UniProtKB/TrEMBL annotation:
Residues 1-96 form the CRM domain. The keyword RNA-binding applies. It comes from the Bacteria. The keyword RNA-binding applies. GO terms for molecular function: RNA binding. This is RNA-binding protein. PANTHER family: RNA-BINDING PROTEIN YHBY (PTHR40065:SF3). PROSITE patterns: CRM. It comes from Pontibacillus marinus BH030004 = DSM 16465.
Length: 96
């Protein structure tokens, strides 16, 4: 689990990022989870936006993505989810 201090730090790092993935009306699927996992390995911190045609609970979508990729949900704000996963080969972010 991430501490409050670590989440604040990651939120500040994610502020300038643009969402890379979009969850549409079909919801979360295996292909999407695999792609997000690959990008998390390279970037460690990403944003995922939930489109308006997706009627799933956004916290549930965040939980599904986090469980599928073994990542941490840093924040769910509006229709945007911020995910963090420590990279094994491309470590860039040092948590406080």
């Amino acid at each position: 689990m991430l501490t409050g201090k670590q989440k604040r730090f990651l939120r500040s790092k994610a502020h300038h990022l643009n969402p890379i993935f979009q969850v549409g009306k079909t919801g979360v699927n295996e292909n999407m989870i695999q792609q997000i996992n690959d990008v998390l390995e390279k970037r460690e911190l990403i944003k995922v936006s939930i489109l308006q045609n997706n009627f799933d609970d956004k916290n549930e979508v965040a939980r599904e993505l986090a469980e599928g990729t073994d990542a941490h949900v840093v924040q769910v704000i509006g229709n945007v989810i911020v995910l963090y996963k420590e990279s094994t080969e491309h470590k860039q972010i040092v948590l406080p």
